[in-house]
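Appendix C reproduces, verbatim, an entry submitted by the partner laboratory led by Prof. M.T., so that reviewers can inspect both the input and the predicted structure.
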Amino acid sequence: MTKPSFLGFPDRLADGSVPRAVIFGVGHGTTYPGQDSSFYALAADAIRAASQADAALVGNWDFDLGGPLFDDGPICCIDAGDIPTTLHDDAGNRARIEAKAREILALPAVPIIIGGDDSVPIPFLAGFADHGPVWILQIDAHIDWRDEVHGERYGYSSPMRRVSEMPHVAGMVQVGLRSVGSARLAEIEAAQHFGSHFVTAREVHAKGVEAALRHIPEGARVVVTLDCDGLDPGIMPGVAARTPGGLTYTQVIDLISGLRSRQARIAGFDLVEFYPPADIDGLSALTAARLLVNVIGTIVRQV
């Protein structure tokens, strides 16, 4: 039985043209010794399933976007399915994720990842090595700046640390931060030494998304990496570490669309850390699907 694609998108465009964006699912990234991240492999298909109710409405007016998804144009986004990843084949998974990102960027198109734990952004961003400089907009409750955990340097506590070491990464804005995570004083100082801009969730609630957007240089090419725990668990309960006080759906889509006010372009997007076993009544999957719609709509409208 063929699995449904996101919003019923094709796996190639009928006229043979190059798509503006290519979605692909990722099951596994880099795990810590003795840990099982297999349930993250369910995320991509859960998001695809949540999108099916709107598949017939792609040409209808979308109030989040101020018009139809493809702005009255033809479908220009495809769903390429999932790349093969294997639990605990960490180096192999990283190589396949990076290779897929490079393949899509060479079209050229905007690569979009759905699924996987928060180690996935490391190889994804490595794939931009020939397409820099890029800025990183991380939406997350945590800064993910550990150099290693249990001897592993490419796990889900380290993506922004590893990304900061990539020569093609020009800067970073980390928004939605709150509560406590794996970061200690040493990690805070390392991130600040790099020049990362911290924007807490409380700042966004008090000052609006401009508190984060003002740090993005005008005209920048931006890779958005969205850890689902960056959102409040009231609308995104399907995460491994629920943390109250997170960003709202509206704040996140305003961050995404607000990049256009900086004349910035989305160069890539990943949505990670959706943990389906913790979801409630499909709410997280639905929220994730709608966030993805907004990302695609923004990509379609960027010059």
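The mean pLDDT is 96. Additional entries are available on request from the coordinating office.
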